[in-house]
Amino acid sequence: RQSMTRIVGQPFGFALAVSGNPEPTIDWSFTPTQQNSPSATLPAGVRHSGGALSADSITFELAGRYEARAINSYGHALAVLELIVRGPPIVLVEPRVLSIPSGSSGVVTCQVADVANASTITWYLHTSDPLPLGARQSGNLLYIDKINSNLQRQYTCHVVNEFGTEDVTVTVDIQRHPSLFIRPLRVVAALNSTVSVSCVATGSPPLTVSWQREDGDAESMRDVIVIGTQLIIPRLTMEHINRYVCTATNVLGRARKTLDVNLQGAPIAPVLPPIGAGGVSSTSAVITLPQALTNSPANPVETFSLRYRYYNTDSMSFSDWVLIDDRISPQDSTYMVSSLPYPATLYQFDVRSHSAAGPSPPSNAQSITTPPSGAPTWPRPPW
Fold first, then answer.
1. Which of 222, 249, 326, 370 fits a disulfide with 305 by CB distance 3.0 to 4.6 angstroms?
2. Residue 8: which of 85, 63, 116, 113 has the closest Cα?
3. In degrees, to the nearest 5, what angle opens at C-alpha 182 toward C-alphas 102 and 361?
């Protein structure tokens, strides 16, 4: 049994003098340091030829126990090499981002992987300044006591041994609910032009940000590009005139903001009033129509289109939108929907304005729940 110490980056060579008649064969096995299960496969980077081992450059992964077994028809012999590797510290820090609620406490661990090399661990601010009041070190641990804005910093675990140093930086942050900012909230653009809008999201822990159409039409998102938090419509068509939703999510919750994409000269999105319970039965509803809003007096609102979707309790999702009528006069104050397919069901309605220049984005959605068949209802308004 032999022991050999090498420094990270040095070449490595070892040879056994083996004799016997008939000439023995030699098999090598390897057991990594701090493990008990040998492997018939030598680690990557180690070559062998008979009783000789070699490597161009030592790494920590090569440290361990090498066994050579020489065998012929009369028996076998065993030789063992214990390879010890020394080098700069390997530092493992968990977590790399510590995000905790305001006023709470937390801890970060700085662990040295190579325990055979004596190391000194020091925590300090990322700028090499001493730890602020409320942050303290105990051994390899960094404690944050009752986090506030002054403790919301970057901290460094500085590890030194006789072969070198290693610094690992961690971020300590106060948990914050997602927050979104979009400007502008309404884009007016010409056909075939490019639309690009960014959704600025803040929050901690890290956020997941997504864009989608408010009506859930994934098919119409095929030629819309999302890069990070940016929504890009390379070539605006009628199909893109809609309301888009940016959503930011983390473990604390989510935030959403909407963006209206308008065609130049076309109406802006109308505002659909709430639907009164007095106009709702098991298969019908009276919809109060919105005020016609236009971008251009030269292109007044000519018609409204009205559609609905319903909540499917089997799939636990909304159906596709169903067009009810696309020739509703803007002079009408109400519209009777008389053929809703299911009683005792949640419905959503929205409206678009249409002019010679094109459609508006859809209005806000208003919801009703129809009563069961045969249930008493309020008298319908006389109109």
1. 326
2. 85
3. 135
Structure tokens at 281: 């039965």
135-143: long-range pairs with CB below 8 Å, 24+: 135/172, 140/109, 140/110, 140/111, 140/112, 141/107, 141/108, 141/109, 141/110, 142/107, 142/108, 142/110, 142/170, 143/105, 143/106, 143/107
Assessment of whether the complete model's pTM goes beyond 0.85:
no
Burial string for 195-214 (b: 16+ CB within 10 Å, else e) reads bebebebebbeebebebbbb
Contact 17, 68 (CB under 8 A): no
Q: Residue 377: what pLDDT?
A: 57
Residues 81, 89: Cα–Cα separation, whole Å: 24
- Which pair of tokens denotes residue 88? 């700069």
pLDDT, tens digit, 9 for 90 and up, residues 25-73: 999 999 988 777 788 789 999 999 888 999 999 988 899 999 999 999 9
Rounded CA Rg of the chain: 35
CA distance 26 to 87: 31
Q: Is the pLDDT of residue 382 over 50?
A: no
Contacts of 36 (CB under 8 A, 6+ apart): none
Structure tokens at 267: 């109406």
| CA 107 centroid distance within chain | 24
State the residue for tokens 């938090």.
229
CA nearest to 305, candidates 378, 348, 230, 362: 362
Q: How far apart are CA 38 and CA 19, in angstroms?
A: 25
What does the pLDDT look like over 63-106, one tens digit per residue? 999 999 999 999 999 999 999 888 888 899 999 999 898 889 99
For residue 178, which of 69, 85, 91, 251 has the smallest C-alpha distance?
251
- Residues 62 and 52: their CA atoms lie apart, in Å, by 15
Query: If phi over 0 gives left and psi between -120 and 50 gives alpha, with beta otherwise, what is residue 203?
Result: left
Q: What is the 3-state secondary structure (H, E, C) of 162-181?
A: CCEEEEEEEEEEECEEEEEE
